[in-house]
Write a structure and sequence with these properties.
By secondary structure, the protein is an alpha/beta fold. The chain has one domain: Rossmann fold (3-Layer(aba) Sandwich), CATH 3.40.50. The protein is 45% helix and 15% strand. The protein contains seven helices and six strands; from the N terminus they run βαβαααβαβαββα. It has a six-stranded mixed β-sheet with strand order 2-1-3-4-5-6. Strand 4, helix 6 and strand 5 form a beta-alpha-beta unit. Helix 4 packs parallel to helix 5. The longest helix has 19 residues. It is globular, with a radius of gyration of 15 Å. The termini are far apart. The relative contact order is 0.16.
């Protein structure tokens, strides 16, 4: 349970701009963040329309988001299991915050609100990183593709 309100964008010298991937886009999450003064972007904005954005490959949208310096809110843990998509993430240099895929919108709003201070702090570092949003806060997430990659490099 939250004891204080999430920080408004004006709390930060340079507040992050958030990109809601196609699996996490919702009016409720957008309203939460924009109501606090944050800029929020969607796949439709990135591609020109919702139809053009549907099904965009992660290795296509990640570099575009990275070039703009946006912070990603997502539910797709699978991107970090597939080595070619994990490589695209690393090249893009984005901060990604993952919400449980099976969570309901209200749960996602609560997670974002509770974790927003740590999300903004991490995103201000402007480097690649992945965190899971939990009721305990934003926790670093080690991608299976990264574990496999490290495992291979030790073996060779």
């Amino acid at each position: 349970m939250r004891t204080s309100e999430p920080p408004p964008a004006s709390s930060w010298a340079t507040p992050p701009e958030f990109y809601l991937d196609e699996n996490s886009v919702s009016r409720t999450i957008r309203r939460l963040l924009t109501g606090l003064g944050y800029r929020v972007h969607s796949p439709a904005e990135l591609y020109g329309s919702r139809d053009q954005a549907l099904g965009a490959d992660d290795d296509d949208w990640l570099p575009k988001v990275g070039q703009r310096g946006w912070t990603v809110l997502a539910t797709d843990f699978r991107i970090f299991e597939r080595p070619h998509e994990y490589e695209a993430y690393l090249k893009a240099g984005v901060s990604v915050f993952l919400m449980p895929a099976e969570s309901k919108i209200d749960e996602r709003v609560e997670l974002i609100a509770a974790c927003l201070p740590s999300m903004c702090s991490a995103a201000s570092q402007r480097g690649a990183g992945v965190w899971r949003l939990t009721t305990r806060g934003a926790e670093p997430y080690t991608a299976p593709a990264a574990r496999k990659k490290r495992g291979r490099s030790r073996d060779t």
